[in-house]
Structures are given as C-alpha cells and as structure tokens.
Specification:
It contains 4 helices and 25 strands.
C-alpha cells in the first residue's frame, strides 16, 4: 500500500512540530510504504515546515516518529519538492538519510526545471514563427535541410546511445491543455525514419528498438502516459523504404496522426504534452520531424455575434506556485449562478471569492490576494479552489510559497 502525506500549515494553537508529528503518526500506523510530500522552495523550507532549525534536525524528527521500525525493512519512499521557478534552470538534488546515528548521502542528480505557461483549452502552431512555448532536450525548433519552413527536428541523422544505455530526445509544450469532454484530440504531421524493431515484435517488448512517441502528464511531468503506442519507420511503407535505402526525409513523406487524449486521461485534467524519440545503442536512422500541431481544435470556437465561450471551464491558476497573488480564470457558455471558493487541505473554507453571483455567459478572471475571509495572509502550503456553476463543478490545486 502506498501512502501520500502532505506537509502543510498547522492549525492554530499547536506547534508545527506537534501538529506534523501527530499527522504523520496517524497516517504511518500500520502502513508498509510512505510518501512524504514537502511543499516548499527547497529543503530549508521543508525544515521550517517541520519546525526544525535545519535540514538534519528535520530528518531526525521524521525518523523519530517510528523509532521501532525505522529502516527495519525496505520501503518505497518518495520525497517530492515543488520548486518555484520563473525561468528555465538546472537544479542539483541529493538526499540524506540517517540510521543509528550514521548519515547516508545519495548521489547528486541534475534536473532541468522550467515554468509552465497559463493553461489553455486549445493550442495550434505551424512552427514557422519562433516561440518559447516549447522546452527542448535533443530535439530542436529549426529548419531541416530538405524543408522550407521551421518544424521540430531531431538531428539528421541522430546518434546512437552509448553502449548499454537508452537516451531520449524530447520537446515539451509548456502550455498545459485543459481536456474537454468532446473533441479532446491531438493532431500533427511527422516523418519518423528511425530504426525498426525485429519482425513481429510489438511496441513495448524487447526487440522493438528505436521509436517515437507522444505522451501526456497531469502531474507536472512526474509520470508520462502515451496517447498511443510508439512507432518507428515500419509505420509507413515509404518511411520503411527510406530507412532501408538509408535516405533522408522529404516533404512528400509527411504523414498525419490524430490521437484521442481521453484514453489515458479524463475530461477536466490539465495535461502537459511531450514528443519523445527513444534511442538505443548500435543502429540509427535519419530521424524525426514534427509539423502542424493542433490540440483540441475548436474549443475556443465562438459565436460570431456575441463572442461567447462554448463550454464551461476552469483554468489552472497563474502563476502557480505564487506569492502573494494569483489569478483564476473560468468560462461560462450561458448565464449561470457562480460560486468560487478556496479551501485548505483539511477541507476548511479559507476564502469566498464569488458567492452565488448570477453571471452572464463569458470569460472571467479573478485575483486572489492570498488572504482569508478575515483579511489575514495565509501561510505557505497547498490550497484548493472550486467553482460551482449550475451542474458544472470543478476544482484545482494551487501552492502558496513564501
């Protein structure tokens, strides 16, 4: 059984340490696996959440919660830090653990972090204009030798992975997409002249070698789910011929794809989209090119006379994390009574932003100043905002970081 614990603002009247100790003890009782989520800018913020003077003391507090069975058996433990960034940067992470007075330190890994843009219902681009909507690692927004306009390109040809290794070339759209119940599709054109798998081996099995794939994530990139199986040059006979003849891609080899995003995700999910070329050792090919991307076309369709939205929606707040203010946007396709409220992790109401106000159809944005109904500034932590508009009810998480 896996457990997720969220460290958050303690209630008034209790010290932070006592509150979090009690919370964790209650949750850890009888469980075999634990996950601790620390919402803070860094490990020092985590320590402050626990009321500890430093990171080492915070770790000792956590270990003291279960002194009888700490490290008694292997546990799946995941610590997630939500890091606020306003521009792309590389951050080094490491983990320190303790047992019987001995300190154990992990190796250090470097992660590339980048801010997300405001969530949208629809997105499209022909890639001809320069844009900062994508973050690339190995793929690039560029001209190809045989193409007259920009697109997303891998190197041509792409290089092998090191012996015994797998590498990924990626391009991530930093505009999250709010999935709708209808027409939740992603469409694009591409050419994928990449190494083919062994004959008869399906995707996902050993022997299906290099491949390209389009994936989504509704947890800010922690996990990725494919919209459809990955594929290689055998997807199309003309691609396969080019691969076997060791020739490159040309505009005549573009093929179109349309995938339904509601297979791995649900309506209302906010999804980040990634294009990925998976490469193993030994054999390569010409590579991959992606053009004419269209996601949920028509979701911003409007009546030419009144310019009204066609669906109910609640966007992810922006910025998120935030300090001290953030904006919340929503759309109403018809006149509706609207209630918009903010809650803490205990389900206690923190602020009423809109109280059953009847509003005409349109798109609205409201700002929350980080204060409760009594005008007091709220503490760092996770909060929920929820809209009720007729039968439409939707909520999202947001994080206040100070």
């Amino acid at each position: 059984m896996s457990l997720e614990l969220e460290v958050y603002r303690p209630q008034a009247g209790l010290s932070r340490e006592d509150k979090i100790r009690g919370l964790l003890k209650a949750f850890l009782s009888g469980r075999n696996s634990r996950t601790i989520r620390a919402y803070g800018a860094d490990l020092e913020d985590f320590a402050r959440f626990l009321g500890a003077p430093d990171v080492d003391a915070a770790a000792q507090i956590l270990l003291s919660l279960h002194p009888g069975d700490a490290n008694a058996a292997a546990l799946d433990t995941l610590i997630i830090l939500v890091v606020s960034v306003d521009q792309p940067k590389t951050v080094a992470f490491s983990l320190t653990s303790y047992k019987d007075g001995t300190t154990f330190k992990s190796s250090t890994i470097n992660l590339d972090l980048f801010p997300l843009l405001e969530a949208q219902l629809s997105y499209s681009t022909d890639f001809n204009s320069l844009s900062s909507d994508f973050v690339f690692d190995g793929l690039a927004h560029s001209f190809g030798d045989e193409f007259g306009n920009r697109a997303i390109h891998s190197p041509h040809p792409y290089l092998d992975a090191p012996l015994g290794k797998i590498i990924d070339l990626t391009g991530i759209l930093t505009v999250p997409i709010i999935l709708t119940s209808e027409n939740a599709t992603i469409s694009y054109r591409d050419i994928a002249i990449v190494e083919t798998g062994d004959e008869g081996v399906p995707f996902g099995e050993f022997g299906f070698w290099d491949y390209v794939i389009v994936e989504g994530s509704n947890d800010n990139g922690a996990t990725w789910r494919p919209f459809a199986d990955g594929y290689d040059a055998s997807f199309d006979p003309a691609w396969l011929t080019a691969y076997e003849d060791n020739t490159g891609g040309t505009p005549f080899l573009f093929r179109s794809h349309t995938f339904n995003m509601l297979g791995p995700f649900l309506s209302g999910d906010i999804v980040i989209i990634r294009f990925r070329l998976n490469i193993d050792e030994a054999v390569t090919g010409w590579g991959w090119v992606i053009d004419n991307l269209m996601i949920q076309p028509g979701q911003f369709a409007v009546d030419p006379d009144d310019q009204l939205p066609m669906v109910f929606s609640l966007a992810q707040n922006y910025p998120n994390p935030f300090n001290p203010t953030t904006k919340i946007s929503y759309a109403l396709p018809k006149t509706t009574a609207v209630k918009l409220q903010i809650f803490n992790l205990l389900g206690q109401r923190v602020r009423v932003l809109i109280e059953n106000n009847r509003q005409p159809a349109g798109t609205y944005t409201i700002e929350w100043d980080g204060k409760d109904d009594l005008g007091r500034a709220v503490s760092s932590g996770m909060y929920y905002y929820r809209i009720e508009a007729g039968e439409f009810v939707k909520s999202h998480k947001m994080i206040m970081l100070k």
